[in-house]
Amino acid sequence: MRAVAGLLLMIATAWPSTLGEARDRATGPPETLASERAVTSNVPVESEFPIDFLGVLYEGDVEGGQLRFRHDGRWGSWVELHDDGAEVADHWASGLVSGSDAEAYQVRVPPGARAARAVVINTTDGQPQAASAAAGVCPDTTAVVTRCEWGADESLMTWTPEFRPAQKLTVHHTATTNGSADPAATVRAIYRYQAVDRGFGDIGYQYLIDGSGRVYEGRYSGTDSRPGHDAGGGKVVTAAHVGGFNAGNTGIALLGNFTSVESTTAARGALTGLLSELTTRHGIDPHGTSEYVNPDSGATKMVANISGHRDWAPTECPGGTLYARLPTIRDGVDTVAPTISEVTAAPRRWAATVTWATDEPATSRVRYRPRGVSEWRSTSRDATLVTSHTAEVTALARHTTYQYQVISADAAGHPAISAIASFTTR
Ligand SMILES: [Zn+2]
Q1: What residues pair up with 65 in beta bridges, in sequence order?
Q2: How far is the CA of 198 from the centre of ligand 1 (A)?
Q3: Phi, psi dihedral angles at 277 (to 5 degrees)
Q4: CA-based nearest residue to 410, from 83, 1, 3
Q5: CA 223–ligand 1 middle distance (angstroms)
Q6: Residue 41 alpha carbon to ligand 1 centre in Å
Q7: Ligand 1 center to residue 171 CA distance, Å?
Q8: Distance of CA 22 from the midpoint of ligand 1 (Å)
Q9: Cβ-contact 34, 120 below 8 angstroms
Q10: Is the separation of the CB atoms in 33 and 49 below 8 Å?
Q11: The pLDDT of residue 12
């Protein structure tokens, strides 16, 4: 578990049983079923499998469209299509619309749309994946839901990762239907849509966050314990979420459409925690604004360090309600280490109980050494984030004076260490 994943750890403890099941299963998550067909406006199309998601793509300088589904022989009402926010010049793509196992669909695209096609995706009913995912065992390297854990079919990943120094953090929404009961299935659908149908070669965001506050690894960056980063953790993987400004720009997408609906408190809390971790790791001022320079193309733009997609390009993304929350989210980003107080030790014959307080939730560890010895020993790190800390120091010698210090790190990974104190065993 990386030290910086403290807050995510807290989230991990709230994971539902799905993750455990993923680990226990002898087989992997369902293979993604997908079918892409040319669109003829108003012509009903029967699907060969239940429709979980549908996206519409076309070329041309127009936008929008309508869609309706048929369930049990009855057509539903037409719904407007909204763009998915992953802008590419002269290409329009809708966000994925949930089909709720529809059997057929009809699409309308505006005059001027060329090469229109609809892609139908099912990420829940396919055969369990064989091969690599079939082992059903994902290395437990991080509190983020890894690609292995959400069931990425790595054969769809055709974009070799490139890494650049971190400059900006950009917030998105996925413009998918709100309130998914199976967010991992939505992540798989977005992955298929962006990697294959949109032609990116991978999912376009470095991270995604669901309504319960779970954080998902997005863009492939290797199988080490640092999602979104190179093995050293200092550089970020380039993804595809802001046209022309992707290198060194980390994209975090909340699952759903926040044009008029509010995001959940849990999702915004996880976003704030992730931003705390990333600004800490990369030394980014959460309230700063500076010139972004694309290290590959030289393109520049003056933009907030924590931005919304619409700060970069004319798009609705990340939605009006989420965008309006950005100032509060920036204020919530934690850049300060915890303050340690009330450090006490209660020694016994072969052990001591050390207690202390911190002014924000933080991890717990004690390092100690017999007086006159230079080498420190340490208790194991308790990653539970608390403000009242207790640690047992054991296997001590009797009638011996020990020096000790307590160490606590907050959710964003900011460490604090107390002054050296001492106790004497009985
Ligand atoms: Zn966006």
Answers
A1: none
A2: 14
A3: -60, -45
A4: 3
A5: 26
A6: 27
A7: 7
A8: 29
A9: yes
A10: yes
A11: 33
Tokens of 80: 């407007």
CA of 396 to the centre of ligand 1 (A): 56
CA dist 143 and 217 (Å) reads 10
DSSP letter at 197? I
Which candidate, 18, 21, 20, places its Cα nearest to that of 185? 18
> Which one-letter DSSP state was computed for residue 96?
P
Report how far ligand 1's centroid is from the alpha carbon of 79 (Å).
21
Specify the pLDDT at position 80: 94
Q: Which two tokens stand for residue 129?
A: 């994946």
What sign does the CA torsion over 166, 95, 332, 387 have? negative
Determine which helix (DSSP H) or strand (DSSP E) holds 185, and give its type and residue range: helix 183-192
pLDDT digits (tens, 9 = 90+) for 363-403: 999 999 999 999 999 999 999 999 999 999 999 999 999 99
CA 351 to chain centre: 42
210 CA from centroid of ligand 1 (Å): 15
What span, in angstroms and rounded, lies between the C-alpha atoms of 353 and 337? 24
Instruction: Measure 342 CA to ligand 1 centroid, in angstroms.
Output: 46
Ranges of residues in the chain with a pLDDT under 50 are 1-26, 131, 133-135
Q: What is the distance in A from the centroid of ligand 1 to the CA of 145?
A: 21
**Residue 174 Cα, ligand 1 centroid: separation in angstroms?**
7
Helix (H) or strand (E) holding 279, with range, is helix 265-282
**Could you give the CA distance from residue 219 to residue 205 in angstroms, rounded to a whole number?**
6
Q: From the CB of residue 181, how many other CB atoms can be counted at a distance below 10 Å?
A: 7
Asked if residues 159 and 201 have their Cβ atoms less than 8 Å apart, the reply is yes
Cα-to-centroid distance, 243 and ligand 1 (Å): 10
Burial 337-348 (b: 16+ CB within 10 A, else e): bbebeebebebe
Single pTM value for the model: 0.80
- Domains of the chain are 3-27+131-332 (3.40.80.10), 33-122 (2.60.120), 340-424 (2.60.40.10)
Between the CA of 86 and the centroid of ligand 1 the distance, in Å, is: 6
The tokens describing 384, both together, are 């539970």
